[in-house]
Every structure is written in C-alpha cells, then in structure tokens.
Amino acid sequence: MVSEHGKAGRPRSEQARAAILHAVDDLLVDVGYGAVTLKGIAERAGVSRQTIYRWWSTKAEILLEASAIDARQELDIAPQDGPVAEITAYLDALRTFLTNSDAGAAYRALLGEAQHDSAVRELLLSSDPIGDSAATVLSRALPDDVLALPRSRAVSSLVGPTFFWVLSGRDPAAMNTHDLALEFIRTAAPSHASD
Amino acid sequence: MVSEHGKAGRPRSEQARAAILHAVDDLLVDVGYGAVTLKGIAERAGVSRQTIYRWWSTKAEILLEASAIDARQELDIAPQDGPVAEITAYLDALRTFLTNSDAGAAYRALLGEAQHDSAVRELLLSSDPIGDSAATVLSRALPDDVLALPRSRAVSSLVGPTFFWVLSGRDPAAMNTHDLALEFIRTAAPSHASD
Amino acid sequence: MVSEHGKAGRPRSEQARAAILHAVDDLLVDVGYGAVTLKGIAERAGVSRQTIYRWWSTKAEILLEASAIDARQELDIAPQDGPVAEITAYLDALRTFLTNSDAGAAYRALLGEAQHDSAVRELLLSSDPIGDSAATVLSRALPDDVLALPRSRAVSSLVGPTFFWVLSGRDPAAMNTHDLALEFIRTAAPSHASD
Amino acid sequence: MVSEHGKAGRPRSEQARAAILHAVDDLLVDVGYGAVTLKGIAERAGVSRQTIYRWWSTKAEILLEASAIDARQELDIAPQDGPVAEITAYLDALRTFLTNSDAGAAYRALLGEAQHDSAVRELLLSSDPIGDSAATVLSRALPDDVLALPRSRAVSSLVGPTFFWVLSGRDPAAMNTHDLALEFIRTAAPSHASD
DNA sequence: CAATAACCGAGACGGTACGTCACGTCTTAGC
DNA sequence: GCTAAGACGTGACGTACCGTCTCGGTTATTG
Question: Is chain D touching chain C, with at least 3 CB–CB pairs below 8 Å?
C-alpha cells in the first residue's frame, strides 16, 4: 500500500490537526481571545504542545487557519435581484460576520493583533476575507462602466462605515443597512442612485 | 497646616504619576505595544509596581490616560476655507493620526484590545476621539440643513473608509484624501457635490 | 520594629528555604537522584519554581546546601582511646556515611555530577567533607613527628581504599575496618605499627 | 547458504553498530557527558533513534560497550622489572586513564550514574576494568606468599588513594606515583619494603 | 525466484522538565 | 499613608529530549 504524502516517516496526523483547529474555535468562544493559550488549546485538543509548535509558529496563525474558511463562506452571499438588494444583503452579512460569528470574532481578534504585530498584519492582508468578498459583490452589483471611483476605494467606501461602526463599539442594532446601501450607491455609482 | 487633598497621610505623588504616563509613551514608541509591560513601565518610570496598581487597574487605562489628550489635539484641525478643504484636511489629520502618531498607535492598540475585552470597549467608547473630532468637523463643514443623512451615520461615512484602509493594513500612501472628501460630500450632501 | 536583614523589600522567607532543603532530602531518599527534579522539589516543598531559581542556580547547589551540615556531623567522630581505635572508628563512620546516610547519598550523587561538570567539581572541592574530616582525625591520631608521608597523601591513603570499595559497588559489609586501620597505620606511621 | 546469525530476515547492520559506538565516543569528548543525548548520538551516527533502542536500553549500556575495550587496553601495562617499577607503572597508567583518557571519562561518568542507578552499578561491577587490571598487576608483582593481606583488600589499597585523589577533584599533577607505590608495598608486603 | 521477515532511515506523536518572563499580591523599611 | 524595594505563588511561554509509533524502503534467507 502506498501512502499519499510520499515522504518518509510517520505522516502528519490529520486527526490532531482537526482537533487543534476545533479547539481554537471552541476556546475563542468560551474564554475569549485574551485567554486563549497554547497550553489551553493543547489540553482541549488532547494533543501535545509540541505538536502545535511543529506546525504553527503563532497563536494568530492557528486562529487564521481555523477561521479563514468559515469567514469566506459567511461573507459569500447569494446573488440578489438588483444592486440595492445585493449591497444591502452584503452589508447584512458583514454586520453579522463582525458581530455574531465565531469566525468574525477571530477576525477582529487578529485585526487587533495586526495593529501591533506586523507579521500578523501581513498574514491578515494576505487572507483579507472582507476585501475579497466586497470586491466580488461589487463587481456583481456595479459593472465597471457605472463605477465612478477606483475599485479599491469603492471597497473601502462599501465596508468602511460598517467596519468603523462595529469596531469602535457602536451598537450594531442601530445600523440601517438599506440606507447605508443607498448612500454607498450614491457615492460609487451616481447614475444608479435613482434605482 | 491643612493639606489640599483633605485626607490624612502622604498625598499622591504627582511626580510618580507623570513619570508613569511618560514612561508608557516612551515604551510604546521604543518597544511596541506587545512588549509594553507593567514591570517595564515601573522600571522605566523609577516607580514601584505597587504604585501603578494603586491608581490604575489595567494597562489599557494607563495607555488611554497617556494618549487621550494628544489624540484630541492631533485630530482638532484648524478651520479651513470651504467644506471640501475642511474635510480633506480632516482626513489628512486622521490618516496621520492612525499611521504616524504615538497617540494613534496607542489608539489602535486599545481598539485591538477592545475587540475582546468589553471593559476596554466601554473605556474607548467613552473617550472616542475619532467620533468626537469627526462630529466637530462635520458640524462646521456641513450645516444640518444640507446633511442628507443622520449625523452619526455621516460620521461613519466620513471616517469609515480611511479607518478600514489603515486598520486592514493597506498602504496609507495610496490614499487620495481629496477624492475621498469629494466622494463623502457626494454621499452626505448631494446638494453641495458640485462645489 | 526593625527587621534584621536591613534591606528594603520583603525579606526572604526562611520557611520557604527550609521547606526546599527538606524537600530535596526527602526526594533524594524517595525517588533517587536521577528523578529529583526542580519541579518535583517545588511541588513537594509547596513552593513556586521561581523561588528556587531565585536562590539557587543548579540542582547540585541545593543538594550540597541541604546535605553539607549533616555530612560534617556524621563524619565528626568522638575522640577515641589510641590511634587504632580512632582510625577504626573513623573508617566505620565513613563507611556508614557513604552507604547508609542520606547526606552520603547526596555526596555520592554530587561526586558523580562532578565527574562531568566542573562547576560541581569546584563546589564539591570547596566543601570537601571527607577530606576535612579525615585531616582532623589524622592530626588527632598521628602527630606530625610519627607521620611518614605528607598529610594530603595520608588523607588519600586513609580514605581511598574505603572510598573505592564503596563507590565501585563492592559489598560494604565485606569490609573489615579494623584491619584496614592497622594497614593504614603500617603505611603512614611504621613506628606505631606494633601498637 | 546459511547465514551466521541463524535467523531469517535482514541481519543487523554492523555498520550502524560501529557508527553508533563511534559517535558516542566522539560526543563524549566534544560536548561532555551531560550533553550526550540519544538524539545527538543518532544524528551524529546518521542512524535512526529506533535503531539504537533496538539494541541498547540505556545510555549507560552504549557508553560501556563503547569504552570497555579501550579501558582494558589502557590499564594493561607491560611487565616491568621488579615490584616497585611494576606498581609505579600501573599507578601512572591508572592516573592517565582516569584523567586524560576518553575511556576513563566514560568510566567516571558511568561510575557517577552507578551511584544512583543500581542497574548501572551491576553493569559496571560486571565489567570492572580497574579491579581486574589491578588484580592482574598485583599477582605479577607480589606473589601470594609475600602478600600480607587479602587480594581484594590489596586491590583497594593499591588503587584507592589514586582513585580518591582524582575523583574528589584534586590535582592529578600533584601525585607522586613512585612514593605511592612504595607506600603501597610497605602496606601490602612489609617484607619487600626494603627493596 | 518470489515470499517473507527483520532490518533501516525518517519523522510525527504524547509526555515531561527545563529555565524565563510577567503577572498581581504581599511584606518590609523609609519618608 | 504613600513610597521604593523586592520576595512570594501562579501560570504561560518556547525549547529540548524522551520513548513510542507509523511510514516507505532495503536486504537476506527460505520455501
């Protein structure tokens, strides 16, 4: 019988890997980011600390790997009927992601680390689930010829207000995503503003 | 003779307080937020650790007290000639604050903590240098009768794009604050958009 | 009230110190030298690991401090009537020390370490309970004018045979200390050999 | 064809065995006993750790096998002309072995282990290069009829002083082997003392 | 000449102790 | 009653080896 990994030596335990990623998720929810500890992850996962160090070098890396897929899924909304509905649905998803999702909690924690750790900054920027998802939605809702500003700036204008609202600690329930969507379209595609 | 603070015993040392706040600032610049440590502050300030614990309960509190005044100053811009200039100047100040200022580094660090520590969240929201300064500039540049959306949402639309741009790790130099200002005015005060 | 140590700060806990030294002794007897662990000492003593590191830098240092006083006591025999009795009594004490005493077990363990750790070598040589006690007994039993060889070599001739016998793993019960004493005197003080 | 080891399957690799023993010797000299590690041996020998565990159960066993033959050779001196020369030559060899020889370093390390590990004690006693070599020299230098004490005690008297001198950390250069030999003969064979 | 059996290297696994660091608390002496 | 000094217990850090356990491959002997 031939194993798939092709290299000599005992192959990496997929079970251990899954247990670790799962444990990180659980702990983040249970005890909060500050109290997530490599020791704690190891114990919760039933895995030795050394096994974690073998495959990840920082807490942030594990967290990112544990949440990246979920993050993309949660921000990947189904196509809607018309730009306003599209944008509104996306802003709803973004708000939910940032406030009520485990993956979102991980994202916010990583974003915090990124502010004083350039390694995490790179890591996060290379993943960038918000930027990517916003760009996707945007290209679907507003074609190039109606967009009055560069895509990258349009992304910031789309997600920025919600991003600031939530991260600065304002009440997410007080946001009106439909109005926000209208305002965004007024900025980014004035010709569509009357739709 | 009667002391001013009214209580018996040795009064609080103003010298120690200043030394601590100064040490926090220095350390933040020198070693970065991650390595700012209560032990380190105490040593740099020539103060005992107990003295710090007597007056502050968390690292975040000290950091906030050490940076709040600077933050307000740096975001308090001189009045400009016309809304566009006003908004542009403010966005410049905001970008500089978030990227090149010690107080801004402290703010970003605290914002990171706030994502997983509700006590810091409250603390930061009660200070809110960005929200306050944006509101001030806004009321100066765009009177109520030309503002097409609620003030609180206007604040988010004003600072949100820049906020997201910087905190998500994008290159600050690639921002065009003048265009950003124009876009904001198009959103918030369509009647002024032709100015 | 004035404390004795004269320095500022919390004074060293004599209770912790005693508990540590006691725990080392206990552990050495219970689990053997190889299994004596700093972690184990700390737990047995009800003391934090850090407290141990604060005052000692190696396991050997603790062990030496814990056993040095006992070692000297056990090798300090009461004066006897005549050289032969004196030497015999000393060799008995030495054998008991090396085979049946906790302090002796510590000494043998340290001697082992000293064979491949020069720091321990120095430490042990500076304490040297066997050399010192042998010299004392020797000067009491055989005055200078009857001693046919240098004191330092006499010490080696006195303790060497027993030392080798025990450390090389030979059966201590098969030693005849009285005959050993006679042989030593024949070597060191031929003029007394007929006593 | 019939293999020598009699069993089916691939025979033990003599090359691996030699590489391991050689690596142990090298490491002992290079990094000192304390830092000799099974992992290190395996890497230095270019051998897997499992291969070592297959054939030896402890570090001590490998060390003994690696040094036993050398030890015997170094302590097996050429016959000399007369008892004094014989004994002196042997003590010289013994001193050199214990202080300047790789095999001697291994022996001292094992002796240290033997003090707190009875398995090593047995192992070492069953090899006993010092006891054996001393007995050989002794029987050559002093026939039974001139020996005033049992052979086993004579062995201790012969090697004990040197053994203690070296292992207790005293300066080997300060030993006078010729005088030591004379003293030994005075003890063990008084009738020859005038030779 | 295949099948079998025991070896070999590589390397991941769960453990355990290491020595260090910062934490928050405490107990002194001094002002 | 505040201060500096500094020891205390606690607990996570990242590292090093331990002994065990798969893996893919490699020899020899045996049927």
Answer: yes
